[in-house]
Design goal:
5-stranded mixed sheet; 28% strand; globular; disordered N terminus
Length: 138
């Protein structure tokens, strides 16, 4: 028996991240903070975690403009089915929410989609992922 449990070569794995990026006071430098990460083999659990992080962020910050949009996206069954099919197919999902001083990025990506040289949380090129309608995207 090997040390690997509940894994198979064809089974997908998903890395989820919640990041905050903004200027450091009086330095002019930008800093990136990891607010949370989550690994799962389930696209359903990946989306559930992503939605929970989105709601956690907007509930604690005064992101009134994006709160309704993110809630609507998370609660819309058709949007969730589309996002599920998208990430299950191996494509990344990005949710980018700007704030006054900071930008929050929530992402789900297949581990197989991350190039070995890319650091966790590296941004894809334009058009690489499914972006949440209503949110601002880089």
């Amino acid at each position: 028996m090997t040390g690997e449990v509940n894994t198979s070569p064809e089974q997908a794995s998903y890395r989820c991240e919640a990041l905050a990026e903004g200027l450091v006071c009086e330095t002019g430098e930008t800093a990136r903070y990891v607010l949370g990460t989550f690994w799962t083999i389930s696209p359903v659990l990946a989306l559930r975690w992503l939605g929970g992080q989105a709601l956690w962020i907007v509930d604690r910050l005064d992101l009134v403009d994006h709160l309704a949009e993110l809630r609507a996206w998370y609660e819309d069954r058709e949007s969730q089915r589309t996002a599920h099919a998208h990430i299950k197919g191996g494509a990344p999902l990005l949710v980018v929410v700007p704030d006054e001083d900071c930008t929050y990025t929530l992402s789900v990506r297949s581990v197989a989609q991350d190039p070995p040289s890319a650091p966790p949380g590296a941004r894809d090129g334009a058009g690489a992922g499914l972006l949440v309608p209503g949110a601002v995207h880089p």
